[in-house]
Amino acid sequence: MSFKLTILGCHSATPRTLAHTSSQYVEMNNERFLIDCGEGTQRQLRKYKVTFSKIKYVFISHLHGDHFFGLIGLISTFSLLNRKTELHIYGPKGIKEIILLQLKLSKSWVDYPLYFNELDSKESELILDNAKIEVHTIPLKHRVYTNGFLFKEKVKSRKLNMSAVKLHPEIDICDYQNLKDGKDFKNEDGSLIDNKLLTHDPPAPISYAYCSDTAFTESIIPLVKDVDLLYHESTFLDKHEELATKTKHSTAYQAATIALKASVKKLILGHYSSRYDSLELFKEEAEQLFRPVILAQAGKEIKVSNQN
Amino acid sequence: MSFKLTILGCHSATPRTLAHTSSQYVEMNNERFLIDCGEGTQRQLRKYKVTFSKIKYVFISHLHGDHFFGLIGLISTFSLLNRKTELHIYGPKGIKEIILLQLKLSKSWVDYPLYFNELDSKESELILDNAKIEVHTIPLKHRVYTNGFLFKEKVKSRKLNMSAVKLHPEIDICDYQNLKDGKDFKNEDGSLIDNKLLTHDPPAPISYAYCSDTAFTESIIPLVKDVDLLYHESTFLDKHEELATKTKHSTAYQAATIALKASVKKLILGHYSSRYDSLELFKEEAEQLFRPVILAQAGKEIKVSNQN
Fold first, then answer.
1. To the nearest whole angstrom, how far is the Cα of B122 from the nearest Cα of chain A?
2. For residue A155, is pLDDT > 70?
3. pLDDT (tens digit, 9 = 90+) per residue, B90-103?
4. Window A:36-75, CB contacts with B under 8 Å
5. Would you place residue B308 in the very low, low, confident or very high pLDDT band (cuts 50, 70, 90)?
6. How confident is the model at residue B240 (pLDDT cuts 50, 70, 90)?
7. Closest partner residue to A72 among B69, B92, B108, by Cβ?
8. Among partner residues A42, A62, A81, which is closest to B15 by beta-carbon distance?
9. What is the mean pLDDT of residues A250-255?
């Protein structure tokens, strides 16, 4: 099982000379996708040498500009690069109209299959379920309709314990798939050999939850329970909690509260307001409650590898 | 009279690590405006220390992404920066719908007066006429409806020749405005003193023509006749003239042909295709026919100052 997250941008509001708005590129179990797509994301993809063409899915949390103004440019660039493979966009209702209107008025129809999956449910939904991953929405509380996303690898087959298997010459190569699927081995006399004696557990599937933008809400805790990595926005520090409440954002301390209560393995902070001089302040505040804390920064790669 | 042009981006198609798509910032006779606004323009404005808030007009030539995908971000950023002064957008019909749809779906109405002036005429029009400048469209030939823009300073008042004026004690300070307006001085006995004996010509008004994107078309020559500066796109070199014709773009040689036939004072080239290794090739090609040629490059400032 493998997971690599590349932060392309992690600041709130507007792009600045050294601040890129939200976007993340993820490789998970050989699927490649983008989460949010602020203005300039395609430039960041080039900067960090991401192979554009392999991105198959784009998940847009909400329609504030710092999370999606780069999407139309990316879709157009895919077309200019002669993309032929399909692209699936997941985002709030309305996103299809915005994109198609711009393609229509610029007479720039794309030549590749472009699918929109518009979201409007207030409940968590399973929105993608293929052989490699599944993706659920995490309803968030913001000024406009917003979803976080929970990405989970599919559980792989059990691994054969070959030294154990070879002690039983009655087990034929044709039986291996059943063993990998978790079935016990049935001898000719009807007696069983427990599957666990013949196989190892598969690597634990990796899970990643992305939560931006949102006010502090404990409703997300059961949805992100025990994940390997939680990205939770921390636009403000605790001293500006009132402002966070007013603008429906979170503080670093609140993000850490969610991480703690959901027993996640690691917390990533991001979506920083530009009012602070140092990002370390966010980390110090969250670490009062939870560890480990990782600061999202453009270009940072975060890897998870579960091996058994 | 004063004119300063700052190139923010001058490459075609898609933004790349070292290539920014079309946008120019202009200060002309104390008016500040933007011409075209590709993705990432607001970052370029910050990079080159342009005071955002003073931009009053934005002129969009056409709705291809490399000329306007940065507009919605700029409009939103103005709002986040608490802009209160009015902003006037000039661009092809449809631009208002694109912008307003995005503001509506993101619930991000702007707090400042935002005016749209949608263009759909195929003839040259006077679209802005104030005390300082006038702006005319230059209909271009491209794959979608496209205008270039001709910017002209207003002619200023004549300048008093004070040493000459003082030779005539009968001329009162109350008469100065009439002299500045070009009127002759009338003595009590009805005789006239020729205005030209009492005043100097005002500085010559500066004119700038922006022509991107367009196939080679001589129809623009009378519209850009004698301008101080002509920006004419040169997406291709002459060896790719066939491709230029097919995509309705121009070569550097064709841009120089327009400059020569219109007797402009200087030619600026830009909107380069990424297929060429060196921009100098564009300059060399255009200089076979016309001089001086300036290569647009991000960050380059081009000034014109007419003094009498």
1. 17
2. yes
3. 999 999 999 999 99
4. 39-40, 42-43, 46-47, 62-65, 69-70, 72-73
5. low
6. very high
7. B69
8. A42
9. 98
Predicted model pTM: 0.91
DSSP string, A214-269: ----GGGHHHHTT-SEEEEE--B-GGGHHHHHHHT--BHHHHHHHHHHTT-SEEEE
Does pLDDT of A52 surpass 70?
yes
CATH (residue range A3-156+202-304): 3.60.15.10
Q: Is A103 on the interface with B (CB under 8 A)?
A: no
For residue range A2-12, list pLDDT tens digits in order: 899 999 999 99
Query: Which residue of chain B has the CA closest to A99?
Result: B98
**Complex confidence, ipTM:** 0.89
The CATH number of B2-156+202-305, from 3.60.15.10, 3.40.50.2000, 3.40.50.150, 3.30.565.10, is 3.60.15.10
The answer for A 225-284 residues in CB contact with B (under 8 A) is none
Cα angle B262, B263, B268 (rounded to 5 degrees) comes to 85
* Residue found under tokens 């022509």: B211
Domain borders along chain B are 2-156+202-305, 159-200
| Residue A217: CA count within 13 A, CB half-sphere | 19
B277 by Cβ neighbours in 10 Å (0-12 / 13-18 / 19+) ranks as exposed
**Residue B1 — very low, low, confident or very high, per pLDDT cuts 50/70/90?**
low
Point out the residue among B42, B63, B107 whose CB comes nearest to the CB of A143.
Answer: B107
